[in-house]
Amino acid sequence: MPKLKTSDQEERARVVRACIVGNQERQGIDDAYMAKYLNVSMDTVRTRKRRPETFTLRELQAVGRLLKLSPIQAASIVLGRDLMASEVRDFIVGR
Predict the structure, then answer these.
(1) 10-93 maps to CATH 1.10.260
(2) pTM > 0.85: yes or no
(3) Of 76, 57, 61, 60, the residue nearest 12 (C-alpha)
(4) 74: number of CA atoms within 13 Å, CB side?
(5) Are 82 and 42 in contact (CB under 8 A)?
(6) What is the distance between the alpha carbons of residues 24 and 42, in angstroms, rounded to a whole number?
(7) What's the rounded Cα separation, in Å, for the pair 19 and 17?
């Protein structure tokens, strides 16, 4: 049976999850600490990670500070896709 192509929404969700979970692992921050930092329940944190489109802007901003997201990661989350090297270069150079 052929593998089904993932939807655009799922692709965007994967980018968000990768940025959050990857930095969470690098920073050694567990879901309990993140929940306390965001002032939400552990279930809410798990839901947000499973369905990133449910994050509020306030929560995403707080997560960015907590996990020390790079500007490129933050832009990837907002755009819902990985940024290409040429896009980053063009942004830095100012084209």
Answers:
(1) yes
(2) no
(3) 76
(4) 14
(5) no
(6) 15
(7) 6
Burial of residue 65, with CB atoms counted within 10 A of its CB: 0-12 exposed, 13-18 middle, 19 or more buried: exposed
String of DSSP letters for 19-64 = HHHHHHHHHT--HHHHHHHHTS-HHHHHHHHHSGGG--HHHHHHHH
What pLDDT, in 10s, does the model give residues 20-62? 999 999 999 999 999 999 999 999 999 999 999 999 999 999 9
**The token pair that represents 12 in the structure block:** 């965007």
What's the CA gap between 4 and 2, in Å, rounded?
6
Q: Is 83 helix (H, G, I), strand (E, B) or coil?
A: coil
Report the residue count for the chain. 95
Domain borders along the chain are 10-93
